[in-house]
Amino acid sequence: MIRKLLIISALAIAISSCGKGNKQPADIPPTPNYTDLTQWYITDRSADVDIFYIISTETGDYTAADGITRHYADTYNDSLRQPMLSEMSGVDALVSEHFNFYSPYYRQCTLQSYTDDSLTAARMLIPTDDIRRAFYFYKEKYNPNRPFILMGYSQGAMILTELLIKDMNEKTYSRMIAAYVIGATLDEATVSGNRYIVPAKGADDTGVTICYNSVREPSCALRNFEHSAICINPVNWATDSTPATLITETSLTGSNRDTLTVQIDPASGLLCVKGFTANDYILPLIGKEGNYHSREIWLYRQCLKENMEARAAKFGK
């Protein structure tokens, strides 16, 4: 479904731009300049391996100073940057103790963009193009030769899928330890039609794509994310329905610990989580009770951290 929406997006914008000049529409914020350090969150630990992280949707529709409603984040607006920064620094703290961490600010489309397929398709090209430019600059300026891990969450996972399809080549792929497509799904056409999307089969294979999408049960999936061609359990790193037990705090602020059973549903390719007792945050506009989209990194934080370290160690041998 991700691939379908992005194809429609490219076609829609190409058609709408025919006959128009290059002037940027008034409702689109300034283009990020990735030579400007303010457009990056960077933690340089002098490590041998990097994480390139693409954040999830942290922006809703807002009215700018000119009175125009914006549907994309303004990466130069401090109030809009703050939630993006919070996610970047939070994920950095959770998973990248032994890695350098790079995350670009980008004109992500707002949450309202996901209430309708046509809105999603029309608006995804701008954030995708920003990240493509950021990734190119990252490879040229910050990391011309070190191995790296790609990680995208939610909207970031959708964009990461496009990087794997359109921006990967043999030289770049030879340095990719793994790609973590988190809180999203991948359809069969996307997986089978792209040589750089190789489903992970275990805990330490490299050059692979890790994908999972957590729900209480398949009926709790977000619209357009009801089925995935690939899924790996981030607790036991199984690709079948073998259950895993995870004992963890389910909230960033609480101290209660749940004993969760985490298991792939083979029919849907979704990751089913049983035993969650906290009052979960339900995404506005698009969320469902029993959908754990907001917990995708937090729940498995230690598993992800250790797994990245294991794959990096295997890659270095």
Shape: globular
Strand content: 15-25%
The sequence of SSEs as H and E is HEEEEHEHHEHHEHEEEEEH
Total number of strands = 12
User: How many structural domains does the protein architecture include?
Assistant: 1
User: Over the alpha carbons, how many angstroms does the gyration radius reach?
Assistant: 19 Å
Distance linking N and C termini: 36 Å
**Average pLDDT, to the nearest integer?**
92
Question: Low-confidence runs (pLDDT<50, min 5 residues)?
Answer: 6-21
Summarize the structure.
This protein is an alpha/beta fold. The protein contains eight helices and twelve strands.
Which helices and strands, and how do they pair?
Elements: H1 2-17, E1 40-43, E2 50-54, E3 62-63, E4 69-70, H2 78-95, E5 100-104, H3 117-123, H4 125-142, E6 148-153, H5 155-167, H6 170-173, E7 176-182, H7 188-192, E8 208-212, E9 214-215, E10 244-249, E11 257-265, E12 270-274, H8 301-315
